[in-house]
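Researcher: Here's a chain I'd like modeled. Treat it as a single chain, no partners, no ligands.
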Amino acid sequence: MEPPREGGEMAALRAAKRALRGELRQRLRALGAAEKQRQSRLLSRKVIDHPKYQESKRIAIFLSMPDEIQTEEIIKDIFMQGKECFIPRYKPHSNHMDMLKLSSAEDISSLTLTSWNILQPSDDDSVREEALAGGGLDLIFMPGLGFDKKGNRLGRGKGYYDTYLERCMKHPSGKPYTIALAFREQICESVPVAENDVQIDEILYEDC
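Model: Modeled as a single isolated chain. Structure tokens:
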């Protein structure tokens, strides 16, 4: 019997990812606002006490959507500690993302709201430093829909972070340390992955 063709394997992988995304979105919809806030506060404390965070100077972090760990407290601490903060600017209809420098926590209020309901620097903002055009990054906090304990991540299907990490690997400073921030409801037994899906160094959640 001949082995399954690559196309069939990829179709099966895509179907498995799609099914898991549906299940995780359902789990996240069932999470109440108070519980999200409780877990977010707990994770903010874990991050602030984390040795990798403490030793990092240039940090990329996402601005949270409603179904993600809320990152406001971490962003405030980044500036309080005198570290440099970079946030994503996603290019629509592509898998391209840049990490642009935020000047302060208050700077967030000047950002543009995209059609995806995400705050980010506008497309014509050419003033902000892009992390890889400068000294690279020491640490990236990763969002996602689901994670397993081996460091596999299920994103939203666009490939922004995987593509960006490939670019990081070509930078003289090398690949930054990656930490995913997750609600415990986002931890899965196993996440289906392809060869080009980049593993995360560490996943932080309530019970870890």
